[in-house]
Automatic annotation (TrEMBL):
It comes from Streptomyces griseoaurantiacus. It comes from the Bacteria. CDD domains: ybbN. Gene3D superfamilies: Glutaredoxin, Tetratricopeptide repeat domain. It holds the Pfam family Thioredoxin. Residues 21-155 form the Thioredoxin domain. This is Tetratricopeptide repeat protein. PANTHER family: THIOREDOXIN, MITOCHONDRIAL.
Length: 324
């Protein structure tokens, strides 16, 4: 497992967006299945802090990260700053009452994990959310800084990934959680998997067709809608000369097609606000078919980023002001 950095404030990572949607769907399915079984899924406070090794990393960190953010504390017995930091993290894990899990990794016993995360020194603290790894901080940190970082982490996990954390029951007995039931496969899982394979292999046309096939049967399928928006965006920017497109957009502010192409590149490059602002301005200063073309592309880009992203919420308000 090679960790990836996931920005919590700026860049749109299309893979992370896809992971967010998948994590939300899995979390909703798991909650629905638990409710059907009458299982609250509650854990004891003692289960909020785990000792994790290489053998159990996939189970205890990667799999659990689809239901709750997992904070990883890389430490060692000989590390004095670790002895100051670790108790603070353990106390906060209990205080946050299931909003995150704390996984403690002894680097002396788990050298491979240390190398995979690219850790040069300890203490080092990472998080994994929906299988996406991101660094939180390294070295000594004050409790206020730690709290601010954790607050941001749990907010992003809930807003972008639908991870609301675990239910904690002080009377629960550690280790007595019911065995997880298999979530039944959805009716379009095979078709969606084929679309993902096409997308991952660079067959953007095939991915677009596969996602459209799903939507023809299930128009509201969220994974297909997101996948189609991503595939169409990537197909539009494929082969574009970015420098030429940006130069043309700068020289021809009234050219709607040039602004739309530049907005696509803005989004793929992670400049979300620039993409939204460019198209909103285009809507504001155009009329008729030109205005409608810019408006529709902006709505498509909203689909890529996700309706729950605060940048989309703000851009929708700006679009409404531009239109009315």
């Amino acid at each position: 497992m090679q960790p990836r950095n996931m920005s919590m404030s700026g860049v749109v990572d299309l893979a992370a967006v896809k992971a967010a949607q998948e994590a939300k769907a899995k979390a909703e399915q798991a909650r629905a299945e638990a409710a059907r079984r009458g299982d609250t899924g509650a854990v004891s406070p003692a289960e909020l802090v785990l000792d994790v090794d290489e053998a159990g990393f996939e189970r205890d960190v990667l799999q659990r990260s689809t239901e709750v953010p997992v904070v990883i504390d890389f430490w060692a017995e000989w590390c004095e700053p670790c002895k100051q930091l670790s108790p603070v993290l353990e106390r906060l894990a209990v205080e946050y009452n299931g909003r995150f899990l704390l996984a403690k990794v002894d680097v002396d016993a788990n050298q491979m994990l240390m190398q995979q995360f690219g850790i040069q020194g300890i203490p080092a603290v990472f998080a994994v959310v929906a299988g996406q790894a991101l660094p939180l901080f390294q070295g000594a940190a004050g409790e206020q800084q730690i709290r601010e970082t954790l607050d941001q982490l749990v907010q992003v996990a809930e807003q972008r990934f639908g991870l609301t954390g675990l239910t904690v029951d002080p009377d629960a007995v550690p280790g007595e959680r019911p065995a997880d039931a298999e979530v039944p496969a959805g009716p379009y899982d095979a078709m969606l998997e084929a679309a993902v394979r096409a997308l991952d292999s660079g067959d953007l046309g095939g991915a677009v067709t596969a996602y459209k096939n799903v939507l023809s049967e299930d128009p509201g399928n969220p994974e297909a809608k997101l996948g189609l928006a991503q595939a169409e965006l990537l197909r539009r920017v494929q082969g574009l000369d970015a420098q030429k497109v940006r130069q043309e957009a700068a020289e021809k502010p009234g050219d709607v097609a040039a602004q739309i192409a530049a907005a696509d590149l803005d989004l793929v490059g992670g400049h979300v606000e620039d993409a939204f602002g460019r198209l909103t301005d285009t809507v504001r200063r155009t009329a008729g078919e030109d205005r409608n073309s810019a408006r529709l592309r902006l709505l498509e880009l909203f689909e890529v980023v996700g309706a729950e992203d605060p940048r989309v919420t703000g851009a929708r308000r700006a679009l409404a002001r531009a239109l009315f």
